[in-house]
């Protein structure tokens, strides 16, 4: 199994931050009325029998649970950006795209982290690569060591052919035919997935199952054959899978690719260099240098 590259291990936190920001914006005083006529911006945001939940209670709870994490995320981003400018460290768009592709190929299709918006994930990848570059900027790795590592781990830098898919799984051929009719009449694939699909994991995501390798256990040869003839943005004909039938929506196809040593040389250098760095892989390593002062005091 491929190693899941380290930079992406932090990316899920970005989703939580995004959700918190969205919620706080929704809670602004000028927010529109919510469910049941209760205004999200008013003093009372919910009632339970005769008891009220105030906006202040809600915001205080959110701040206690997520406030430090959210503020730390914002501070760390500024710290890394400031350090990168100071030491003239940069990460190219090509490196970010390449890391994204390699991570995407290593993650299972149902890993929740990869249901995130692509640009959000790439922004986190850029931050993580900048941090690695900063922490390893003074570490020297020989060309011979890097080439040997590539030769011994060449399979890590290969991307299999993959399909970016949504699915609707139903119990029988008749129901599958009904789903096709509703799609042809203009029904939303996402809505039908949520309403009809028997696969709870993907149904809640509008049928999204992410990037699935063409060769693997998740797609049968029949499904691959059907997807090969399906146009991007279109749905497939029902494919029998075990006792069920599946209709796929093909969002995109990723071609098979092998990255050369030259393509991944910088990534290998960082990886080998990180093994020699005693400083923990955290932005907090640069807090003193950046003279950070924050609401939660001096503790890091």
From TrEMBL:
State which residue ranges cross the membrane: 7-27
For the keyword Protease, the answer is no
User: What SUPFAM superfamilies does the annotation carry?
Assistant: FKBP-like, Triger factor/SurA peptide-binding domain-like
Q: Keyword annotations for this protein?
A: Isomerase, Membrane, Rotamase, Signal, Transmembrane, Transmembrane helix
Which Gene Ontology MF annotations are present? isomerase activity
Q: Where is the PpiC domain?
A: 160-252
Which reaction equation describes what this protein catalyses?
[protein]-peptidylproline (omega=180) = [protein]-peptidylproline (omega=0)
Q: Which PANTHER family match?
A: FOLDASE PROTEIN PRSA, PEPTIDYLPROLYL ISOMERASE
Q: What is this protein called?
A: peptidylprolyl isomerase
**Which species?**
Rossellomorea oryzaecorticis
């Amino acid at each position: 199994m491929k190693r899941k590259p380290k930079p992406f291990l932090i990316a899920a936190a970005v989703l939580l931050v995004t959700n918190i920001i969205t919620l706080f914006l929704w809670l602004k005083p000028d927010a529109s009325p919510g469910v049941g006529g209760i205004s999200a911006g008013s003093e009372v945001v919910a009632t339970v029998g005769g008891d009220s939940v105030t906006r202040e209670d809600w915001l205080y709870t959110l701040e206690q649970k997520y406030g430090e994490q959210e503020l730390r995320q914002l501070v760390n981003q500024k710290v890394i950006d400031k350090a990168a400018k100071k030491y003239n460290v940069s990460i190219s768009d090509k490196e970010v795209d390449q890391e994204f592709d390699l991570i995407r190929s290593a993650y299972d299709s149902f890993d929740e982290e990869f249901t995130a918006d692509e640009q959000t994930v790439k922004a986190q990848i850029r931050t993580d690569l900048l941090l690695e570059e900063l922490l390893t900027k003074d570490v020297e790795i020989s060309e011979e060591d890097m080439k040997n590592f590539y030769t011994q781990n060449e399979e890590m830098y290969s991307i299999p052919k993959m399909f970016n898919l949504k699915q609707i799984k139903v119990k029988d051929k008749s129901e599958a035919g009904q789903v096709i009719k509703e799609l042809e009449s203009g029904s939303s694939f996402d809505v039908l997935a949520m309403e009809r699909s028997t696969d709870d994991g993907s149904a809640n995501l509008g049928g999204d199952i992410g990037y699935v390798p063409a060769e693997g256990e998740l797609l049968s040869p029949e499904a691959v054959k059907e997807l090969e003839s399906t146009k991007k943005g279109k749905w497939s004909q029902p494919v029998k899978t075990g006792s069920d039938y599946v209709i796929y929506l093909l969002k995109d196809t990723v071609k098979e690719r092998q990255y050369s040593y030259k393509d991944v040389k910088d990534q290998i250098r960082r990886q080998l260099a990180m093994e020699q760095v005693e400083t923990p892989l955290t932005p907090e390593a640069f807090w003193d240098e950046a003279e950070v002062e924050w609401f939660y005091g001096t503790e890091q």
